[in-house]
Amino acid sequence: MSLMDAARAVREHAYAPYSKFKVGAALRAGSGAVYAGCNVENVAYPEGTCAEAGAIAAMIAGGDTAIAEIAVIADSPKPISPCGGCRQKIAEFAEGDVTVTLATTDGNQTETTVAALLPGSFDSDYLSRV
Length: 130
Ligand code: THU
Known about the structure:
Elements: H1 3-11, E1 23-29, E2 34-38, H2 51-61, E3 67-74, H3 84-93, E4 99-104, E5 109-113, H4 114-117
Parallel strand pairs: 3-4
Antiparallel strand pairs: 1-2, 1-3, 4-5
This protein binds tetrahydrodeoxyuridine (THU).
């Protein structure tokens, strides 16, 4: 199963009764293991979590800490664009050159990188004086 197929499959489990917008994400960790996540909304809207956050949480719970590749899919008119918070979350565990594949459920797909999604990112260098 491709990474995008894993993202497509987990998207079916998304809990999105408020936005009705289901998102699936799957990542391949440095170990080769694949971790998947979907968005999980909440009646207290800000408590909802994105698909990417779910996949990252699964990766950490599984004992991996490096993202080698990530794929995200949604039923959108053009390939889903990870939200700002998810870009920062992905950057925590991925090098800038890591491929991010973004897709629509009807097969429109594009590739980018972590660095392209989050130029000038806040990283641990900024904490070096504390
Ligand atoms: N969502 C994600 O899961 N990932 C993104 O990168 C963009 C947005 C979710 C959050 C919310 O449940 C729904 O999509 C609509 O914003």
